[in-house]
Structure prediction request, 446 residues.
Amino acid sequence: MDTSQPLRDTIIESLRSGQLRAGDRLPTERAFCEQYRISRTTVRKVLQELKERELISQTVGSGTYVTEHAAQKLASMAADASASQISPAVLMEARLALEPAIVEMVIGNATAADFEQMESCCAKAEAAASNEEFEVWDGLLHERIAQAAHNAFVANVFALMNQARAQGEWGMLKKRSLTPERRLAYQQEHRALVQAIKNRDPALARERATEHLLHVRRNLLNY
Amino acid sequence: MDTSQPLRDTIIESLRSGQLRAGDRLPTERAFCEQYRISRTTVRKVLQELKERELISQTVGSGTYVTEHAAQKLASMAADASASQISPAVLMEARLALEPAIVEMVIGNATAADFEQMESCCAKAEAAASNEEFEVWDGLLHERIAQAAHNAFVANVFALMNQARAQGEWGMLKKRSLTPERRLAYQQEHRALVQAIKNRDPALARERATEHLLHVRRNLLNY
DNA sequence: CTAAATTTGTCCGTATGTATT
DNA sequence: AAATACATACGGACAAATTTA
Prediction:
């Protein structure tokens, strides 16, 4: 059995209920040992975990304290837990809102090298022998476009999208919805989008990105 | 002194030089104890670290093994170390691109309860006695707006923004740039933005969000 | 200002449980 | 079935930093 669980649970619960607030000092490690009848090794294991989660901090000679942003961290924990499960419908709604904005940003920041990579992705997607291979280059094209924004934050947002896409029903949905006709249409839409970006035409690029995503959503979710 | 350092260094160096390759089995914990004249607790502490970094894996009854992607993980360590820092300029550029899009999405999804919370944030920000307090409600208002999109992915994006904002020069920059006149202007811009969202006027809401962010950026970065 | 007490940081040796070989 | 090897836990000791008397 895990003898560390009671201590861990009690501390977390105290933080959640507000019995322990930012700046408060926790009992000493040895006090926890006696109170919970566990070894100091076990106590320190628990405190180590909480310290890594930035819920507490420890100072030699002084004691163990609740960090200033403990409540916030704890709140964002719950959010993160439910975060990785994002439905295709929710993700597509967000992509429809955000990607056209990213495309407009790309127009301001993209270089010739970026365009080359985009067109290379288009070409390789068109030459793909299988649907699996096509999807690889499809995904890579969208990634190249996002990277062409040359903005670290946008790159993080795109990584989030990939994460949501990788873990879930998305793969199955996409596989089932990709017919030869649709693939051909996607290829044309990709080319048209890249061309609009290359021409530095914000309005047209936005429109083509939106239309492509609407098309993908319609095929994926039937609306 | 840290008696765990020699063992840690030796293993890392062996991984880096290729003496230890993917799938290779490491000596047993007790063998390390004897070889380095350290306790098993210390050995386990080192192996625990490497396990968390996904460089090795351990199996009960079998042994300790080098993971398949150990070399790759080790290589990307150095890169990641300098990666996660996003400058205020980069963050503001991304916010300018993404937040107006989010605002437009909010118009389609926000409820009466959302509007109440937004206006409550505005009121509390206006009533704030100190700049610190004002910033709390300022941040909370932007959070409420993002939450009103009622989209889990957008919520994640906003959490990313908070993370980038919390860790860095942002706090100092903001504190230094917030004068009484500017604070008053922000309050009016907030009210105007919320009103536009409430009126479900996409174009106006976008414009006001953009103007507010441009204003913040100008004050923050002087351009 | 000094010295003692307190508290975390690190390390050690041992014992028992559990899964694999 | 026995040996091997990791998983978990305990209690003790000393060092280092801080607080207190």
About this structure: Strands of chain B lie at 25-26, 56-59, 63-66. Chain B touches chain A through 27 residues (CB under 8 Å). The two ends of chain B are 50 Å apart (CA to CA).
